[in-house]
Amino acid sequence: MKQRNFHLLFLLLLFCNTTNLAAQTFTGDFIATSQADLDGFRAPDGSRYTQVMGFVKIGHEDSDITDLGNLTELREIRDNFILDQLSNHLDSVGFPELVEVGALQITNCDNLRQFWANNLKRIKTQGITVEANESLTFINLRTLEYVKEDIIIRNENNGSLFLPFGYGSPELVVDGSINLDISPYSRISMDIDATEVKGDIRVGQSGREYFNQISLTMDNIHTVGGSVVLRRALGVLRFGRHLPTRVEGNFWIQGNSCQTPFIGELFCGGNLVIVENRFYNADEFNLPVTFVRWNLDLRAAQGDDMKVRLDRLEYVGVSIKINGFARDELDFPSLNDLRRKDFIVENCTMLNRISTGENFTT
After folding, report:
1. Which residue has the higher pLDDT, 162 or 185?
2. What is the DSSP string of 40-59?
3. Region of residue 275 (left: phi > 0; alpha: psi -120 to 50; beta: else)
4. From CA 331, how far away is CA 16, in angstroms rounded?
5. Separation between Cα atoms, residue 346 and residue 361, nearest integer Å
6. Which of 254, 289, 288, 286 has its CA nearest to residue 269?
C-alpha cells in the first residue's frame, strides 16, 4: 500500500512539473502596446514565459510602457522580435536569457539609448535591422554566432553608436550582407568578430558626403562571398588582421578621408578599386593584396599623393589603371606576369618610372 501511494505521489509530481514546463511556452504572436499588455503576459501558473512560438512586437505611438520585466526570462522567440516606438520612459533595455530569435528589429525608439542581449547566439530566419533611433548609442550582441540574412544598421542621430557583435562567441557567420549607413554628423563604431560573410560588406553610399564617420573592425574575417565597398564614410578600418582574407567580389575603397587602413593579406576575386581617398597618420598605405582577378584601379584624390603601395601584388588578370599620382616612381616588386595586360597611366605629371618584379620599366 505504501509503495502504491509512493508511485501515485511520484506521478503527481511528474505531472505538475510537466504542466509547469508546458505553461512556459506561449503559442502564437504577442503584441504589447501598453503596460497592461505586458503585465498580463504570464503563464497560467503565474510564472514568466521562456519561449514564444510566434513573433513578439513591443511598442506603439504614445504607449505607456515602462517595465519589460515579464520578457526577461525569454530564451527563444521563433519569429521576429520587434521593438518599435518604445515609450520615452525606456532608455535602456536588456534580455539576459535570450538565445534565439527569428529576426531582430529595433526601429523608431527615440529615447532608447542602450540595448543588450548578452546571451543571444542565433538569428535563425532573417536578419538584424536597426534604424531611425534618435538617441541609441550602444547595442551589445557580443555572443552572436549566426545571422541568417542581412545586418542593416542606419544611424540617424547626431551622436555615436557602438556595436560589439560576436566577440564572446567562437565565431560569427553572416549568411547575408552587412550594410552600415549614417546621416551627416552621426557616427558608427562597429566591432564585428565575423569569420565569414556570405554576401556584401557595404559602408556608406555613393553620392553622399561624409567625413570620418564609421569605424569598422573585422580582425578575424577570412571569407566574403560578395564585395567589400567602403564609400565616403570611413574613419577607421581594421580588416583581416589575423587571417588571410578571400573576397570573391570587388574590393572598393572610394572617397574616404580617414586614418590609414589596416588590412591583412587579401585575395580579390573581382576588381580592386582604390580611388579618391585621403589617408593620414602614416607616410604610405601598404596594401598586402596578392591576387586581383580582373582590374586594378588606383586613382588619387585631386592634388594629393595616393600613398598606396602594393608590394605583395603577384597577379592582375586584365588591366592596371593609374591616375593622378603625385610622385616620380611606382614600384610593384612582386608583380611578374604583365603579358596581354592593359597598363594605363593618366594625369601623372611627375611620374618617370614604373617598375615590376619582371624588370618591366617604363
Report:
1. 162
2. T---TTSPPPSEEES-EEE-
3. beta
4. 77
5. 16
6. 289
Q: Specify the 3-state DSSP secondary structure of 14.
A: helix
Is residue 320 within 8 Å of 296, Cβ to Cβ? yes
What is the number of other CB atoms lying within 10 angstroms of the CB of residue 305?
Answer: 16
Q: Which of 341, 328, 333 is nearest to 296 (CA)?
A: 341
Residue 94, all three cell numbers: 536588456
Q: Could you give the percent of the chain with pLDDT greater than 90?
A: 55
46-102: pLDDT as tens digits: 999 999 999 999 999 888 999 999 999 999 999 999 999 998 889 999 999 999 999
Contact indicator for 117, 139 with CB cutoff of 8 Å: no
CA atoms within 13 A on the CB side of 9: 6
Q: Cell triple for residue 144?
A: 552572436
* Long-range Cβ contacts of 122-125 (<8 Å, 24+ apart): 122/146, 123/147, 123/148, 123/149, 124/78, 124/100, 124/148, 125/79, 125/149
Q: Characterize the bridge pairing of strands 122-123 and 100-107.
A: parallel
Four-CA torsion 143, 145, 148, 149, nearest 10 degrees: 60
Contacts (Cβ under 8 Å, ≥6 apart) of 138: 113, 114, 115, 116, 161, 162, 163
Instruction: State the pLDDT confidence band at 359, using cuts at 50, 70 and 90.
Output: low
Distance CA 6, CA 241 (A): 64
Predicted pLDDT of residue 83: 98
